[in-house]
Write a structure and sequence with these properties.
heterodimer; A: alpha/beta; Fumarate Reductase Iron-sulfur Protein, Chain B, domain 2; FAD/NAD(P)-binding domain; 3 domains; five-stranded parallel β-sheet; 18 helices; B: alpha/beta; Elongation Factor Tu (Ef-tu), domain 3; Rossmann fold; 2 domains; seven-stranded mixed β-sheet; 9 helices; 31% strand; binds flavin-adenine dinucleotide; binds FE2/S2 (inorganic) cluster
């Protein structure tokens, strides 16, 4: 028997059938069995030059963990991932593997790449299902650090500092911890128990969480430093401010930012019958945008009972920024894609209810600054899409609150906090990382930034 | 987190005041700011303006009218009970700098929110004319408190059962017609009322500020459901407001938006009432 599995295709991921799952909020992908995981792990050729590791934003040692998985040593494999990543069960589910590790996999040249993401997920789930939460007693070093925001950046930063002995307090504006992982990404893609488990793990090593704490209002960054004795502050407040298009009709009833729509469903659990939070009873929905957020909103709308859901995207299918898997899943779930289509107005009735979305057809012109071909309007191509609800998933920028309430904090024009490669901001002892620095990006980049800042904070406090 | 209720008072049949233990908020809150409250786990998040703060005892007061399922839930809380979440102080404080002569116009439960503004003005030495409007005598709240902080106080009821009969715009218009001038008019109450207060002051070019209270979820600028059109621009009430230039607010749009969930709310209210009745029986 050959040591390697040379089949050109990935082991398929078992999923709930599309027309069943588009009516429930349970997880779509069910995860590999142990046999499938080992079989898939054997597809890795353990290349010397490790292109996958270089393509991973936090350089997880992929061939090493996969080699252990081949031998069924899943706990050891988990240890390898944990050396560089704080949230393997999350990243295995939500990373855009096709543009990162898997995009550079040698096996991908002649067939499908190794299913690195699915293996990461398997190993992490294996660990989570079996491990007793080991409370490794950490010897405190007596230094206090405040972390603002409990998204992936904040959680990663808090974890690394706590393990170094710091007394870490995480301040979160919402009533639940996890950032976008709880309010944005839906249950059917990332079960909330996974996020809770990560947070519990941090509590077990002594991290304190203060929810309902809007920094800038309840305490300013300056208060945290001077009044409450935190020697350093990490800002991981994300990029939560939704953009609108500036077209007519955006204030109509039935127009939502994807954040509102998803927050109502995920954070406020509007999909459960006993939730007090109301949901708009949409029947025909247009979601504008083509990223993960758009896919999540569209698929949630379908699950909430919409008969027809369109994704309206101004570029072509090749440019869709969402994860490949989400696009495939959305199509299977009968989401209809309208490419090269751009909304120009939301039409309303006398009561200001959404009546239709007026769109124009686009064609691709010259490449723009991002290198993608710029969509230009086709003359006379106007048409109306008959919908009663429009969800805008056009991207987000950092919330202006931090900037407005923190004297001396320098930001870019769209509100991103300016920080160097170690997360240092314009204020001494104040660090930042994640979406608040980069603008909306990915979980793994935010997590990586949190870890980098933790290191820099450690160095900063030790050198004081 | 749990926040204990230190004191409860029924201001009238449908308006309740709760003093909640939230010392850090009490320390920071300024007139015009609000809190987001969730009565129970799984409850809805609703914005309520801070009616008063007692820094010494760490108490933050909210005053609310029982209108829907969520306020009903909140209204079932007694002294010693707790609310699940109490987030704040949110929003930009009302700008009071440099104001010497101000008219504060409140309607219904909005008077509870107008009062701390009037009080803050009085503490800064401003001359305050307060106009308070209610549907009828039974619904009047906070009269003594208003009188105490106002150099002139005018009470209006729709049916004339107390004070003068009519709406709040009538005495305001009368004063303006008689040549009275204010540095600013601050109005807090139902959207229609604020719309007409704005219309009343507009011909006199008197700066008028309205406190908006749209549907909110997070209260931090993350969802955009609190958006209000002001001078043709989209503003988020939770971070840019809740106070805006009343002559620029699109009140008609705000009124329509406020009804987005009306059918759901009616249903929830009924469900909640039935549950409540069952428990009582
Ligand atoms: C719907 C959706 C789907 C996505 N899907 C994917 C995906 O599939 N794959 C992927 O890699 N990425 C995805 N992303 C992007 C990813 O979630 C983010 O890049 C990542 O969460 C950023 O992490 P963060 O820690 O920087 O910020 P966030 O996760 O945004 O967390 C910031 C936290 O800070 C809190 N906060 C903000 N201001 C304050 C304040 N003043 N005081 C206290 N707390 C504050 C917020 O409430 C929030 O909890 C998605 C995003 C969304 C919205
Ligand atoms: S309440 Fe969500 S942005 Fe204002």
């Amino acid at each position: 028997m050959s040591k390697f599995n040379m089949r050109p295709d990935k082991n398929p991921m078992p999923t709930q059938p599309p027309l069943v799952r588009n009516k429930n909020f349970e997880e779509v992908a069910l995860g590999y069995s142990e046999e499938a995981a080992i079989d898939e792990a054997k597809r890795c050729l353990n290349c010397k030059n490790k292109p996958c590791v270089a393509a991973c934003p936090v350089n997880v040692n992929i061939p090493e963990f996969i080699a252990l998985a081949v031998e069924g040593k899943f706990e050891e494999a988990y240890e390898v991932i944990s050396r560089t990543s704080s949230l393997p069960a999350v990243c295995g589910r939500v990373c855009p593997q096709e543009t990162q590790c898997e995009g550079k996999c040698t096996r991908g040249i002649k067939g499908e790449p190794v299913a690195i993401g699915r293996l990461e997920r398997f190993v992490a789930d294996y660990h989570n299902q079996r491990s007793e939460q080991k409370t490794r007693a950490v010897v405190g070093n007596g230094h206090k650090v405040a972390v603002v925001g409990s998204g992936p950046a904040g959680l990663a930063c808090a974890g690394d500092l706590a393990r170094l002995g710091y007394e870490v307090t995480v301040f979160e504006a919402l009533h639940t911890t996890g950032g976008v992982l709880v309010y944005g990404i839906p249950e059917f893609r990332l079960p909330k128990t996974i996020v809770e488990k990560e947070v519990q793990g941090l509590k077990d090593i002594g991290v304190k969480f203060v929810t309902d704490a809007v920094i800038g209002r309840l305490f300013t960054v300056e208060d945290l430093k001077s009044e409450y004795g935190f020697e350093a502050v990490f800002l991981g407040t994300g990029a939560g401010l939704p953009r609108f298009m500036g077209i007519r009709g955006e204030s109509a009833k039935g127009v939502f930012s994807a954040n509102e729509f998803l927050t109502r469903t995920n954070l406020m659990k509007a999909y459960q019958p006993d939730s007090a939070t109301p949901m708009f009873p949409a029947k025909r929905v247009a979601v504008v945008g083509g990223g993960n957020v758009a896919m999540d909103a569209a698929r949630s709308a379908k699950r909430l009972g919409a008969e027809t859901v369109y994704i309206v995207y101004r570029r072509s299918e090749q440019e869709l920024p969402a994860r490949l898997e989400e696009i495939e899943h959305a199509k299977e779930e009968e989401i209809e894609f309208l490419f090269l289509t751009n909304p120009v107005e939301i039409l309303t009735d006398a009561e200001n209810n959404v009546k239709a979305l007026k769109c124009v057809r686009m064609e691709l012109g010259e490449p723009d600054a991002s290198g993608r071909r710029r969509p230009v309007e086709k003359n006379g191509s106007e048409f109306e899409l008959n919908v009663d609800c429009v969800i805008l998933a056009l991207g987000t920028s950092p919330n202006p609150l931090m900037k407005r309430t923190t004297v001396g904090l320098e930001t870019k024009p769209h509100g991103e906090i300016i920080a160097d490669e170690n997360g240092r901001t314009s204020i001494e002892g104040v660090f930042a990382g994640g979406d608040v620095v980069t603008g909306s990006a990915t979980v793994i980049l935010a997590m990586g930034a949190g870890k980098t800042a933790a290191k820099a904070i450690h160095e900063y406090i030790q050198s004081e | 987190m749990m926040y204990r209720i230190l004191k409860r008072e029924n201001l009238n049949d449908t308006v309740t005041r709760l003093d909640v233990y939230a010392p850090y908020i009490a320390k920071k809150a300024l007139a015009g700011q609000f809190v987001i409250v969730r009565a129970n786990e799984r409850g809805e998040r609703i914005p309520l303006t801070i009616a008063a703060c007692d820094r010494k005892n760490g108490a933050v007061s909210i005053i609310f009218q029982v209108v829907g399922a969520t306020t009903m839930e909140l209204n079932e809380k007694q002294e010693g009970d707790s609310v699940a979440d109490f987030v704040g102080p949110l929003g930009t404080p009302t700008q009071l700098d440099g104001l010497k002569k101000v008219a504060v116009v409140g309607g219904g439960v909005g008077c509870a929110i107008a009062l701390p503004v009037a009080r803050a003005l009085k503490e800064r030495g401003a001359e305050v004319t307060s106009i308070a409007g209610f549907r009828n005598r039974e619904l009047v709240i906070l009269e003594d408190e208003f009188r105490e902080v106002s150099s002139r106080f005018i009470m209006m009821t729709d049916d004339g059962s107390y004070g003068e009969q009519g709406n709040v715009c009538m005495p305001l218009n009368r004063l303006l017609e008689a040549g009275e001038r204010f540095d600013e008019v601050i109005t807090i109450g139902p959207l229609v009322m604020m719309k007409f207060v704005a219309k009343t002051t507009e011909p006199y070019h008197i700066k008028t500020v309205a406190s908006m209270n749209p549907i909110m979820i997070d209260g931090t600028g993350m969802c955009g459901c609190c958006r209000v059109s002001v001078g043709g621009e989209m503003k988020f009430a939770c971070i840019d407001g809740p106070d805006f230039d009343a002559h620029l607010i699109d009140f008609d749009e705000a009124m329509k938006r406020s009804k987005t969930y009306a059918p759901f709310e009616a249903q929830a209210r009924e469900k909640h009432c039935n549950l409540y009745k069952k428990e009582r029986n």
